[in-house]
Write a sequence for this structure.
């Protein structure tokens, strides 16, 4: 059994996609699991996980800007904390992702990286990594 | 091996997010699994699963209202049953979610709860819960 | 341990949802796993996986058209390859899905099918299928 590992992720603005691929790769190596599945889980309700192109940072910016266009900061929301947009974006993108593991390697495609999506920063966040063998 | 468990969920309006956290917690306890992963799966094409803030019910209302703004009930859809909006919302939110289990406890964040999203109610629905050990 | 299986999927237009349910079912049978979880993973950053109604092909068309309305092809994106819309759609729909397996059978609902979503075709794509027992 592989223990859950916790990453610390720090955002320095309200909305940003942070590439955590290397940390997830290291966690999988540390788990000792060579075949199975890696799960990346966000325990926050205004953050999310996505797997996207990591080669050109403009892709992450386009995603962030497009989401803000679709779900504006102010739109007559009921929730009084002023961050309802962040909650909606988090539900659209999703709180977790999985990646198959083969021969000790994450089966990411050529252009794929794993991103923590901050929608209500700046904040100190945690990301959980769980590995199942099989 | 933990058997799949089935929850009955009843919605009483067309669109509503229903907090099923307690039922999922009970299913994990019943499984006897102390370390692994819990999956919450919606076998319906006009419903979905999301993990979101459970403290303030206004967050769930804001999510529902925002989705309806993005994907209106009537928009010249081809599907003749009058619920295409619900299908689109279901694909945006997603049919399942996973939560790591540590020491018999779901690793939900402080503010997180698990919600069944009804997009074409009122209906009687099922949610499947599967637990993997490891 | 069940080896990862790879499906070849060919799209013949820019945007299309392709039903891969039969191939996933065959992969689960080939794995020999009778109880566990099947994961369907897209290793591409302009494609995605969704579980949706497979009975009426108009549902898939409505989803594709609605996504294009929400995330237009041209919207002043920064990424210079002209396919930022496809990246955004991929993050909204998600790179993978899971389905519980019970008695050798995928626990899909009556109307559910598994779809590869092409957002930047036509292309030759791969979809990975991983099965965990338990």
């Amino acid at each position: 059994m592989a223990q859950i590992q916790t990453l610390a992720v720090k955002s320095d603005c309200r909305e940003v996609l942070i590439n955590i691929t290397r940390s997830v790769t290291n966690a999988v190596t540390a788990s000792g699991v060579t075949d199975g599945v890696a799960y990346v889980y966000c325990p926050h309700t205004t953050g999310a996980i996505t797997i996207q192109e990591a080669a050109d940072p403009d892709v992450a910016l386009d995603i962030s800007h497009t989401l803000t266009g679709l779900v504006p900061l102010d739109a007559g929301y009921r929730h009084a904390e002023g961050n309802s947009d962040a909650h909606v974006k988090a539900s659209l993108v999703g709180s977790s992702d999985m990646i198959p593991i083969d021969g000790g390697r994450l089966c990411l495609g050529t252009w794929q990286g794993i991103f923590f999506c901050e929608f209500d920063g700046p904040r100190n966040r945690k990301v959980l990594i769980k590995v199942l063998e099989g």
Q: What stands out?
A: The mean pLDDT of chain B is 97. Chain B is about 25% helix and 35% strand. The two ends of chain B are 11 Å apart (CA to CA). The interface with chain C takes residues 1-2, 4, 36, 39, 41-45, 70-71, 75, 77-81, 84, 87-88, 90-92, 94-96, 98, 128, 130, 132-134 of chain B (CB under 8 Å).
